[in-house]
Amino acid sequence: MSEQASQRSLQLFRSGFFCAESVLLAIAESQGIQSNLIPRIATGFCSGISRNGGMCGAVSGGIMGIGLVAGRNSPSESLEPTFTLAQKLINAFEEQYGSVNCRQLIGCDLATESGQRYFMENNLMKHCLQYAEGATRLAISLIDGRSSG
Questions:
Q1: Which of 31, 67, 72, 103 has its CA at a distance of 20 to 30 angstroms from the CA of residue 85?
Q2: Where are the domains of the chain?
Q3: Quick one: which of 143, 123, 104, 128 has its CA closest to 17?
Q4: Burial letters for 33-66: b for 16+ Cβ neighbours within 10 Å, e otherwise?
């Protein structure tokens, strides 16, 4: 299932959705979850949280996808299942790509015109596609394995 979802995130990204949106939407679809809030709730998390160079939007989308499945519905429920999976996603992504920070991953500052120009001129979107695919694959793998420990 993770391969199918990761390919779907690439398809969504190439169709015009951005990192967090495509990852969240692919995870939601793979889990049979539909909501008119998906992917719109992820939009502000794209491009390192609205071009601030923070956490990679693909990772943010993966964390939101984990929350769809393992998140809580009441304050009496434990945070631990979600936090544990999110931490595992962050650690695995960082191990695979060297960082979870958008600015570090792409090597430019999207908050500036020069950074945006550099991003486009150097076709850095190809890296973002890899990150979206990887975050989706890792998140789905964690979601699928949550009941087995």
A1: 103
A2: 2-144
A3: 128
A4: eeeeebbeebeebbbbbebebbbbbbbbbbbbbb
What is the CA 1 to chain-centroid distance, rounded?
A: 17
Model pTM score: 0.95
pLDDT at 124 (0 to 100)? 97
The structure tokens listed for 98 are 């060297």
Amino acid at the residue 107: G
How confident is the model at residue 1, as a pLDDT?
A: 72
At residue 101, what are phi and psi to the nearest 5 degrees? -95, 125
Beta strands in the chain (DSSP E): none
Dist. CA 25–CA 39, nearest whole Å = 6
Peptide linkage before 39 cis (omega within 30 of 0): yes
Give the pLDDT mean for 12-25: 98
Distance separating alpha carbons of residues 28 and 1, to the nearest angstrom: 12
